[in-house]
Design goal:
This protein has three helices and five strands; from the N terminus they run H-E-H-E-E-E-E-H. By secondary structure, the protein is α+β, with helices and mostly antiparallel strands. It has a single domain, classed as Thiol Ester Dehydrase, Chain A (Roll). It has a five-stranded antiparallel beta sheet with strand order 1-3-4-5-2. Strand 4 and strand 5 form a beta hairpin.
Length: about 160
Amino acid sequence: MGGSNELKNRSRADYPFILEYRTRWSDNDMYDHMNNSIYNFLYDSVVNTYLIERCGLHPPTSSQYGLVVHSHNNYFGSIAFPAVAELGLRVNELGKSSVRYEIALFEKGVERVKSVGEFVHVFVDRDTGRPATSGMNQDLRNGLSKILARASSSKL
């Protein structure tokens, strides 16, 4: 993922998949902005929405599923109820059984990005709970390739 200044300049155009989220009163904390833990909840939600809608993942029955092995977030501004968040998603690296996502949170109607985070999934076989020896299945790879930010893939 890029440096802090590079990330601060992210725009919606940097993300091929956008998911809207209407904030809830309970998302706010005592400082009158969305609690940090909600960002992780939203990042997980946009990733899994994409996997289910665009990659054929069916979490209860798929032979493979993604385990989050790394995540972090850079905060540049706050958002609060009743704002509508727009979550941008892209893939920065696609490995044999792993994927590095970049997620940005924007406030609807506001140009500047509020946060940029990263999730790393390792896809494991349901039967063993270990990384898929043959790599992620082709439906996952095809779907994730469509939002890959770089032309070249690299192993994670």
